[in-house]
Amino acid sequence: MTPQPVTAVLLTAQAARVITTELRTADHTIETGGILLGHHIRDTVTVRHAGTPGPAAVRTPTYFLRDLAHAQALADEAFTTDASVWIGEWHTHPTGPPAPSARDTATYRRLLGDAELGFHSIVALILAYRGGRWTESAWTCHGQCVTPVELTNSLVDKPL
Predict the structure, then answer these.
(1) Element (H, E) at 135
(2) What proportion of the chain, given as a percentage, has pLDDT over 90?
(3) Among 27, 36, 103, 139, which is 20 to 30 Å from 111 by CA?
(4) How many CB atoms within 10 Å of residue 118?
């Protein structure tokens, strides 16, 4: 059965901790991020685990590419722990708004089009650093549509 389109993203405290720790130590002038792992049930995605960029990640002011081996190790561990699967990505935008760029959208569509990956939708959590504080947004890509979705357990409500 194909899951319903995502309308809400629930970020667990464990996943939020990983992201906020990375944000505290990251260079705010270059992108950072990681994978999101969890479960898609009905119209809600629960993010149980979030990854860090990994030691071999590529990070520039306008581009982020996760360390694939690092991400795979986290995905294997999360699946063994609670059957979490890859549901999306999180990353920062040091020079733009917390919204998918054209490159982000193209990446999500490419992932959706890869039958081996088996994605029905991709969830993206994007954070931007402005005026000494983080802003965030959650997005889903389903088919050709990229739409904002409700994020429960906001990161910006937590001290960084």
Answers:
(1) strand 133-142
(2) 62
(3) 27
(4) 9
Contact 156, 136 (CB under 8 A): yes
The 10s digit of each residue's pLDDT in 104-120 is 999 889 888 888 888 88
- Name the residue range of residue 14's domain: 8-152
31, 77, 89, 150: the active-site residue: 31
Give 157's pLDDT tier (boundaries 50, 70, 90): low
Kindly state whether residue 160 falls inside one of the protein's structural domains: no
The answer, yes or no, to whether residue 156 has pLDDT greater than 80, is no
Distance CA 19, CA 102 (A): 23
Is it the case that residue 28 has pLDDT exceeding 60?
yes
Report the CATH number at residue 135: 3.40.140.10
In a domain, 1, yes or no: no
Distance CA(65)–CA(74), nearest Å, equals 16
The reply to whether 22 belongs to the active site is no
Sign of the torsion formed by the C-alpha atoms of 122, 51, 37 and 159: negative
| pLDDT above 90 for 16 | yes
